[in-house]
Each structure stands twice: as C-alpha cells, then as structure tokens.
Amino acid sequence: MMIKRVPVIRRWFATSAADVAKQQQFNVFDRSAKLKQRSKSPKLDLEKSRKVEYLRDEVAIRTIERLAFITRDFNKVLDFGAHLGNLLKNLCEDSPVPPGGDEADVKITEQLNKDKKTIRSKIKEYIMVDSSKEMLERDSNETFNEVFEGKIIRNVADEETFDHECLKESDQFDAVISNLSMHWINDLPNALANINRVLKPDGLFMGTLFGGDTLYELRTSLQLAELERKGGMSPRVSPLVHLNDVGSLLNRAGFSMLTIDAEDIVVGGFPDVVSVCEDLQMMGEQNAVLSRSNFLPRDVLLAANEIYKTLHGETDENGVISLPATFNVIFMIGWKKSDTQPQPLERGSAQVNLKDIL
C-alpha cells in the first residue's frame, strides 16, 4: 500500500505554487456570471447603456483631478478594467460648465479642461484591458478616440488571472490606473501584487473601487423587507472592501508612499427601487455573489420599495418622494518601491534637540 501511494505524493509536491494558491483561494464572486452581466448591457440597449455611465464618468473626472497634481510624464499607461474607456473619454472631451454655474464654476471648469489636455500630452501609449469584449469595444469608433494623439490598444483579458501577453512582462508600465473595476475581483491581494509587478520602479498606481457603505439604502431596505416577509435574509448586495483595509492591502502588495481617501457620491431622483435596480443592471453592477439568490419575490420588492421611501426618501416642494443611492468611492494612490524615492533618515541622525524647540 505504501508503494502505491508514492507516485501520488510525488505528484502533489510537483504541483506549482500558483496551482496550490488557486486551490486554497476562497471565491466570493461568480466571475463567469459577472462577465455575462457586463457583456449583456451593451448588446441589450446601447443608448440606455450609455446613459448609465454617469457614475463611472464622475469618478473618472475626480481621478483626472488627482492626476493633474502629478508632474511627471507617463509614456506607457495601463487602464486596468477599463470598461468602455471612461477615463480616456473624459480625458479627450471638454467638460461643460454646470447649468447655472457662477464665475467660480467657470474657472474650475476651464482649469479642468487645461489639466485634461496636459495629461493627454504626457501619455504616448494607452493600453486598455477589460474582460468584456462587448464593453471594451462599445465606443471604439467614437470621436474621442481620434482626439487622443497617442497610441490606443484594447486587449480583452481577465483582470484576475493576468494571463494576457500584455500583462506577463514585469517593469513595463509608467502608470496603472483602475476606474471602478477591482471590487469584483476575488483575489484582490494577488491582483494588486501583479499590478505592482508590471509597474516600472517608482511607477504610479491610482485606483478607485466601491467601499463598504455603497448602496446602504438599498441594502438595508432589502434586508428589512426580506426579514419581514420571509423571516431571513439573502445576500442581495455584494460585500465590499472597507477604507481601513485598503492601506494594508497596498502595503502587502509592495506599494509605498500611500494616499487613501474616500468620497460619497449621492445619485438622487430615482422614482422607486425598481429604477435603482435597473440602472445597476444596465451598468453591469448587479449582484454576482456565488451564494446569491437569483429570484427576488414580488412581495419582497414591494415591501423594500416602501421601506426605502420611509427611511431614505427625499420629498420635494410638490410632495413627490424620490430615492437617493449613495456610492462610497475609495481613491487610492501607491508607488512601486524604488531606490530613487525619498527615504527616512536613520534613527538618531537628527541634529536638533526637540527639547530646545519646545
């Protein structure tokens, strides 16, 4: 019996570390279902798919505002989880002055458009990576692609496995930017480590993802409605990363000089909970948890709608109640470690006594 078991033992030890890590990985999201959800939206209704890009466009603008403070050139940039190219589109299109904007709004908009032009001029090669071919190529013929003077490359690749040829070479990108795509990755620490690997030394990573308080109105309404009608709860909204965890994730991946903050973006004016769910569906952001229930009973949905209005509804001057949806967006910046980066002085090397100052 012992002799027969030897080949099995040897084969187990011959298994690669990557295979062992994959076997041990705890998956939360159904990646195949998420790919189908995201790919379905552009084919289902192209115009409506474009109308629900307001959130990604807004986050792209706020990412551009942060990029404007970085003065270095980025010859080769990776847009990781690019969707249709919201970041590139907003870099190439001038932002209008908000309706009813005052003189300050005019100046802010003018500065933003100048920053867009400056950032565009720094990028020579723009590589877009996304798992959904339909999403990635949806706007490939739009005019904003012609405004960009550099080279645009679109590659269909899984953001989790990093198995595409363009992602295998290390130390190749000056910057990696990710706009609201990493919250569907099961092995986020490994994805961040791979992003660090493909960056050049002292390269920039700037990413955004939805934080833990996103859609708390919808979450609480569905939970209370299901408790009331069914006596239990199903995972209707995906689990998300919390702000306090992002720093340790970036440090673990090898990034330094971290900058992390969060902003709440509130989208209002939804007439009912069905409208909220429809927008999420057209965005490709509906639930993809492995343990999800694929059926939402009508009575639960009706109860959730009333609870949503009661707890979170906003009433205008005409007495009409509309529903808000809050998206907690985490912004993170990290730099790949390099010997050229500023280093802390050795302990005890100070030449001024703190007592003398105080």
UniProtKB/TrEMBL annotation:
Tell me where the transmembrane regions lie: none
**Taxonomic superkingdom:** Eukaryota
Please name the GO terms of the biological process aspect recorded for this protein, alphabetically.
methylation; mitochondrial respiratory chain complex I assembly
Task: Please state what the protein is called.
Answer: S-adenosyl-L-methionine-dependent methyltransferase
Question: What keywords does the record list, in alphabetical order?
Answer: Methyltransferase, Transferase
Q: Which GO terms describe its molecular function?
A: methyltransferase activity
For whether the record's keyword set contains Methyltransferase, the answer is yes
Which Pfam families does the annotation name? Methyltransf_23
Q: Name one GO cellular component term.
A: mitochondrion
Q: Does the keyword Methyltransferase apply?
A: yes
Q: Which Gene3D superfamilies match?
A: Vaccinia Virus protein VP39 (3.40.50.150)
